[in-house]
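G., the chain you wanted modeled:
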Amino acid sequence: MSTYDPQLLATFLAVEQTGSFTRAAARLGIQQPTVSQHIRRLEQQAGRTLVLRDTHSVSLTADGEAMTGFARNILAAHEAAAAYFSGSRPRGRLRIGFADDLALTRLPQILRDFRRDNPLVDFDLTVDQSGLLHQRLESDKLDVFIGKRPSGEGRGRLVKRDRLVWVGTPSTRLDLTRPLPLVVYPAPSISRTEIRRALTRARLPFRSACVCHGVNGLIAAVAAGVGVSALAASLVPAQLSTLGPGHRLPELGTIDLVLLTNPRADQRPAVRALISTVLASGSRSLTAYRVEIAEGPGVRPHP
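Predicted structure as tokens:
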């Protein structure tokens, strides 16, 4: 019967979450050849190919996809056992900030898993725009922040790198000779900044047709045809559609979902336990639930 080394599993999940051996090595503080060695050893233990890699990309095989779930469970059990028998179970109050649009994901399940393993930790939970949460973290009003970071910044632990995409509805038609109607968050907003930067580079005029203070308002405004907006590709809900090349809008690039900690609190056992839970959860935990839209009663959401 095979046994799986937690260190190898942690490396595997880092590769899965970052989509890169190089970024996984940077996250773990090890060399890239060591990452490759860990993946080979894990594949030897499993007797299966888990990761497909070439010079341009890294992807998981079907067995690799299955391994992500097992790896998360094994690492969670390992962490829980270590905390229990060390007698240092985390306790106290944890001030957590979540980016508003991550409420569309399975992030609540991550909190549930954390709470199950750390019942002595209580929460102060703030859900807001990433830009405002960055400010709260810097002013010592948060211990941990999970959300977006500005383009070009290197702070924080990368949880997931995603494309920023334009969103509208299937009936969206654009006249690029007139100011593009935008649905945006108020400043400071990372997605708003990237939208304006891309349109300015492309020399396309724009206007703020609707300013929303939450992701539900943004989704409602775009779905109503008020204007177009941008979201991380994996966070696009079923109510909206990704706009394609036919709309002739400029590329928005990528956006990073990261975990940032307050330097005054990052050594607290509760903070370190939450970091482990988030990083072990897999990048698919930060993917939007898809909800089928239909008329009439009996419509039920599907993950």
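Residues 161-255 form a domain with the D-Maltodextrin-Binding Protein; domain 2 fold (CATH 3.40.190.10).

Shout if anything looks off.
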